[in-house]
Amino acid sequence: WKKIWAYLREFWASQIISIFPKTVMDENLPYLILDRGIEFPKPDNINVNMMPFVPGNRKSLPYRLKKYWGIIRKCTQYIEDNRRVCYLTIQESCVDKGVSQRRPGLHTDSPGTAEANGLMEIFKEIKEREASKMNKKSEKKFQQSKLHRGKGEPTLLCQRLMWGAGNISVSAKPVGGIFMVSNMSNTTEVFPAKIKNPKGVVSKLGDCEHLRPLLGKGRTLDAGELVWITDLTPHESLPSSVGGRVRQYFRLVTSPISVWYADHSTPNPKGIKPEAIIIKGNKFSSGKLVRQFTGK
After folding, report:
1. Could you give the CA distance from residue 287 to residue 260 in angstroms, rounded to a whole number?
2. 256 preceded by cis ω (within 30°)?
3. What does the pLDDT look like over 165-187, one tens digit per residue?
4. Containing H/E element for 195?
5. DSSP alpha helices (H): ranges in the chain?
6. CB of 183 closer than 8 Å to CB of 222
7. What tens digit of pLDDT does each residue of 195-244 get?
8. pTM of this prediction?
9. CA pair distance 190, 108, nearest whole angstrom
10. What is the pLDDT of residue 194?
11. Residue 109: which H helix or E strand, with range?
């Protein structure tokens, strides 16, 4: 068992880019502090998760969320195409001392692989359906198309599930990825590491608690500190050191995402639909997940 454990740790370590780059020109930069002193609007018990909206169109937001437009604009200056659907999470809730508002535990926002998340049958069905319409030549072209890059339903050949992806461009600007900020200090921690390939490394729903000893020292965020991360950057929500305060948490996930979990996400009453495979079922349970068809 000791040899097996040693082999696993060696393999995991080989799949982690763990030395924090010294320059923002490094495409593997796992996180980037974009702004400080972000001011939040007055809380109103808002709780939306992964709601699809168009970041370049204020009218795509429900009325209650429009007061967050200023923070959204802080993010959209880094988004290449503001006409593409992105995904908004806002949680305003009173947090008890010693309790995490968001999902506790070290994880990546990328859920990992289709196999680790019980989605192989769904992906295989999509692959077979598309392949049946094409000959080998056109299928190869299809795999290189916008669909395979995440602008629609991903195929079985995608080795991981995307949740915004993310990298640094040659002009030292973030591309894709995830933007986060909260109004409470020391309640979010990001780590100076990025997973190369989650296959065999990241567990279901991005769990990577087992990688903690390999990641180095994390950085806790101050209140109002806007951070950009990739969907393969390990991070966690920390227990609050004080009780009775309303924590406001903001997250914007860019395109592409591979799957949208309907049972855990907020539909947009404005009619904006997710650009992803829609999955029905409890993602945290061991029950079967099924694909929801939109009728399109």
Report:
1. 17
2. yes
3. 998 887 778 999 999 999 999 99
4. strand 194-195
5. 2-14, 69-76, 120-131, 136-143
6. no
7. 988 888 899 999 999 999 988 899 999 999 999 999 999 999 999 999 89
8. 0.86
9. 10
10. 92
11. none
